[in-house]
Amino acid sequence: PGSPAGRAGLEGSPGGGRRVFSPAGEFREFSRRQLRDMERLFRQYDAGKDGFIDLMELKLMMEKLGAPQTHLGLKNMIKEVDEDLDSKLSFREFLLIFRKAAAGELQEDSGLHALARLSEIDVSTEGVKGAKSFFEAKVQAIHESSRFEEEIKAEQEEKKKQAEELKQRKAAFKELQSAFKQ
């Protein structure tokens, strides 16, 4: 009933309990559009429509993305984000792939890195270029805006100074003018 991202889903947690999963709440680094794109990709390859991508579905996915993996490679891909140890990917675990990719936590030669890089969802185009560069971009933006504010203040000060000089010149001219009138 519903889609993995469109509704709060129940996910198994490592402790054995169940908890409500809200993609938008937990994965705030991604835009709503990115989450929808990731959900669409997930559903596209969830051939069994059971809310999970199993080994064979992942194999098909990687082949279609042009990065086929060995059986062992596929198992390792799942193992890297399989928090509930059920040997298949839930939507939440699927999102972890993109979080790790954005944070630069995936090895360049790993299958998960290839999946994140080759899928249609390029998280870097949305401004999440990895946690490090994301925060660097934030700091840069703050610096840019404060520099911009400083430039505006400097321009305002310059205008005030020019207005004051003009006022003084007019006053001096009026004094000079009144001296000539007498």
TrEMBL record:
<dbReference type="InterPro" id="IPR002048">
    <property type="entry name" value="EF_hand_dom"/>
</dbReference>
<dbReference type="Pfam" id="PF21008">
    <property type="entry name" value="AIF-1"/>
</dbReference>
<dbReference type="InterPro" id="IPR040365">
    <property type="entry name" value="EFHD1/2"/>
</dbReference>
<keyword id="KW-0677">Repeat</keyword>
<feature type="coiled-coil region">
    <location>
        <begin position="138"/>
        <end position="176"/>
    </location>
</feature>
<dbReference type="InterPro" id="IPR049025">
    <property type="entry name" value="AIF-1_EF_pair"/>
</dbReference>
<protein>
    <submittedName>
        <fullName>EFHD2 protein</fullName>
    </submittedName>
</protein>
<feature type="domain" description="EF-hand">
    <location>
        <begin position="33"/>
        <end position="68"/>
    </location>
</feature>
<feature type="region of interest" description="Disordered">
    <location>
        <begin position="1"/>
        <end position="23"/>
    </location>
</feature>
<keyword id="KW-0175">Coiled coil</keyword>
<feature type="domain" description="EF-hand">
    <location>
        <begin position="69"/>
        <end position="104"/>
    </location>
</feature>
<keyword id="KW-0106">Calcium</keyword>
<keyword id="KW-0479">Metal-binding</keyword>
<dbReference type="InterPro" id="IPR011992">
    <property type="entry name" value="EF-hand-dom_pair"/>
</dbReference>
<dbReference type="GO" id="GO:0005509">
    <property type="term" value="F:calcium ion binding"/>
</dbReference>
